[in-house]
Write a structure and sequence with these properties.
CATH architecture of the largest domain: Orthogonal Bundle
Shape: elongated
Structural class: alpha+beta
Strand order of the largest sheet: 1-2-3
Number of domains: 3
CATH superfamily of the largest domain: Intergrase catalytic core
CATH class of the largest domain: Mainly Alpha
Largest sheet: 3 strands, antiparallel
Number of helices: 14
Radius of gyration: 31 Å
Helix content: 40-55%
Order of helices and strands: EEEHHHHHHHHEEEHEEHHHHH
Strand content: 5-15%
């Protein structure tokens, strides 16, 4: 029978168990947190494996004891500051870095900043997320807080303690949408009228802003936001009352394509216009009703830029800028929506789709004008919001004047 080996001074012991035909490595140590003796055993069929596991565990205990000897250095707020300045500041852009600090200072550090890293458990994380839910924060913001918190614990594991378990692994961030946070689906006829007049008033009170005209154009043509910002002067035919859609604008992530070529001061996201064969799926002719034609004519005279819908500087507007303008227009038009609701420019597209259905266009005609390949989606939309569905389709919608 193999000889049993004992070690003194808390270095552990290894002995052979004939009943299981395996080696058992046992180590005892004094836990400095509560001054109590702890014991842990490792069972392996090979002696060297049991001894290796015991030595690795003994080394991790020694590291923890060294960290606890200087406990103030492992306060979460101090570690978080170190992790942000040494890791995140080098990897994230200036805007993202500032956003992460804003989230941490408002939601994370007030609750967990004074705790030792080892004292933060899964229960602490659940309680933090539960407080955010009770405070009516959106699920997207809660997921951002969760991601930042989990990333900081991963950084702690990589640098200080490989044996530390990330408490976020056992917590699932909530995903919900409360009734008053539901997105607006479409605008009724009266709401379209109010939004139209509010957009014109907004343009008058904000000279040089072309985004209100862009909202009206999307509301009365049904084009997507990526298509609206790609419309050029040569795409407009005021004589035939046609808007030719042949391109789309996409936001490209340069870091995803070539991370090494992205410097700290360069912009990570870039607007790119896709035309020709790559944009064939959206190519179509959209008829211009009276109000759409008025807006297009006003934009052609308002500036000399090649693209119709631009910022005063001539740059392509972002979806956030469009959504902010749309919120202001809806508020001025007294169209109610919750402060926490997400107002998307897709609201204009769905409103135009419903407008076509109310005017009597067929499913095929609506799909052609909207640039949708499947009529089934049009049918489902109309069945949901129109009791009777489309009536009859006019022969030519180019000269059709929608309700005012």
């Amino acid at each position: 029978m193999p000889k049993t080996t004992r070690r003194a001074n808390g270095s552990g012991s290894i002995f052979y168990n004939p009943k299981t035909n395996k080696y058992v490595a046992t180590i005892r140590w004094l836990d400095p947190k509560d001054n109590k003796m702890r014991q842990k055993s490792f069972t392996e069929p090979v002696r060297e494996d049991a001894e290796r596991r015991m030595e690795e565990f003994s080394a991790s205990i020694q590291r923890k004891q060294e960290q606890l000897a200087n406990k103030t250095a492992m306060i979460y707020s101090l570690f978080f500051q170190e992790w942000m300045t040494s890791v995140q500041q080098a990897e994230a852009s200036a805007a993202t870095y500032a956003l992460k600090w804003k989230l941490a200072n408002k939601h994370i550090l007030p609750s967990l900043g004074s705790l030792h890293v080892d004292e933060i458990s899964s229960r602490s994380v659940r309680e933090l997320l539960a407080r955010l839910v009770d405070a009516d924060y959106s699920s997207s913001l809660i997921r951002q807080v969760y991601s930042l918190l989990s990333g900081s614990f991963d950084g702690y594991i990589d640098k200080y303690d490989k044996s530390f378990c990330n408490p976020c692994l056992y917590v699932k961030p909530p995903s919900y949408k409360k009734p008053y946070q539901q997105n607006l689906q479409y605008l009724s006829g009266a709401q379209r009228e109010s939004a139209y007049r509010a957009a014109l008033s907004y343009a008058e009170t904000h000279p040089g802003s072309y985004l209100p005209y862009g909202i009206i154009l999307m509301l009365y043509t049904g084009i997507r936001l990526c298509e609206a910002v790609a419309v050029r002067r040569e795409d407009v035919d005021t004589t035939q009352r046609i808007l030719h859609i042949s391109a789309r604008n996409e936001v490209m992530d340069r870091a995803a394509e070539n991370p090494s070529a992205l410097s700290k001061r360069s912009a990570r996201y870039e607007n790119r216009e896709i035309r020709g064969e790559d944009a064939y799926s959206v190519s179509r002719d959209v008829p211009l009703c009276d109000r759409a034609l008025e807006v297009v004519s006003a934009l052609l005279k308002a500036h000399k830029y090649r693209h119709l819908i631009v910022l005063p500087s001539g740059k392509v507007p972002t979806s956030v800028q469009f959504s902010s303008t749309l919120r202001a227009v809806l508020s001025a038009a007294d169209i109610p929506y919750a402060d926490t609701a997400r107002v998307s420019t897709h609201l204009c597209r769905l409103s135009f789709e419903l407008m076509l259905a109310e005017s009597g266009a067929s499913y095929a005609e609506i799909a052609r004008i909207m640039g949708i390949q499947k009529e089934e989606s049009i049918r489902n939309f109309c069945a949901r919001f129109l009791a009777d569905g489309p009536r009859c389709a006019p022969d030519d919608l180019r000269g059709f004047v929608f309700q005012k």
